[in-house]
Amino acid sequence: MTSETPTETGAVSTLPQRFEVTTLPVADVDRAKAFYQGLGWRLDIDFKPSPDTRNVQFTPPGSPASMQFGEGLTNMAGPLEGLLLIVDDIEVARDDLIGRGADVEEIWHSDPAKGKVAGVDPQRRSYFSRAGFADPDGNTWVLQEITERLPGRVETPDSGALAELLHEAAIHHGDFEAVAPPHDWWDWYAAYMGAREGGSTSEQAVELAGRYMADVKGVVVTRD
Questions:
Q1: 50: which residues sit within 8 A by CB, 6+ positions away?
Q2: Less Cβ crowding at N or C end of the chain, within 10 Å?
Q3: Nearest CA among 39, 45, 81, 46 for reference residue 60
Q4: What are the backbone dihedrals phi and psi of residue 35, each rounded to the nearest 5 degrees, phi first?
């Protein structure tokens, strides 16, 4: 078999290969950093591993994937186009970005008979409504409203991994429950599991869950 030989048609790999980062070409790192900070995206890193390189990484709110730019990262020419940002409500998302300084175009939708039509899709169908904007280097992002995925577009969760995480959460919640006033256990579980799935260690997740219970749910642990 050569590298040009395709795999069996319809065979879907089950080996995890998580796409996490896209690299953007930018001319001015500080200008790009200021732009994405202005959008409210999370700044993950900004460091210089060597005198000739600098890595800056941002993650859009709620996104499992991030984007990087910097010095010495890429020799790509020209801006990237059509980077998709999936949103639940395109009108709310557009207003938020405009309020943060982005020049977002008017919303449009795709009509099978007419093509590109101004305004939100009248039936509010998933995938149809879009609006774009560009960063200072011309890299273009496209908001796309998706409220329901087409069949086959969502992976089936790993029940074994979820069971392990639930077991881990149960153990740590037992420690919290022993010293906390009465509360709804699912609130603590949600905060803990969300933190773990976001990359926090178990110790960090315990701290974040405790902070959530105190600050949001008013469940304060008082220790002697």
A1: 72
A2: C
A3: 39
A4: -65, -50
pLDDT in tens, 129-183: 999 999 999 999 999 999 987 776 655 667 888 899 999 999 999 999 999 999 9
Q: Express the helix, strand and coil content of the chain in percent, nearest 5 each.
A: 30, 20, 45
Q: Residue 88 and residue 107: Cα distance in Å, rounded? A: 14
Give the Cα separation of 104 and 95 in Å (integer): 9
Which tokens in the block code for residue 160?
Answer: 């074994």
60's tokens: 């859009």
Which residue, 188, 187, 186, is CA-closest to 207?
A: 188
Give residue-wise pLDDT tens across range 35-86.
Answer: 999 999 999 999 999 999 999 999 999 898 999 999 988 787 789 999 999 9
Question: What do you get for the CA distance between the two ends of the chain, in Å?
Answer: 69
Q: Phi/psi of residue 47, each to 5°? A: -145, 160
Would you state the structure tokens that stand for residue 219, as one six-digit string?
A: 């469940």
**Amino acid residing at 63:** S
Structure tokens belonging to residue 149: 């995925």
- Upper half-sphere CA count for residue 191 (Cβ side, 13 Å): 22
Tell me what percent of the residues of the chain surpass a pLDDT of 70: 91
CA distances from 211 to 50, 131, 208, 217 (A): 37, 37, 5, 9
Rg of the chain on CA atoms, in Å? 22
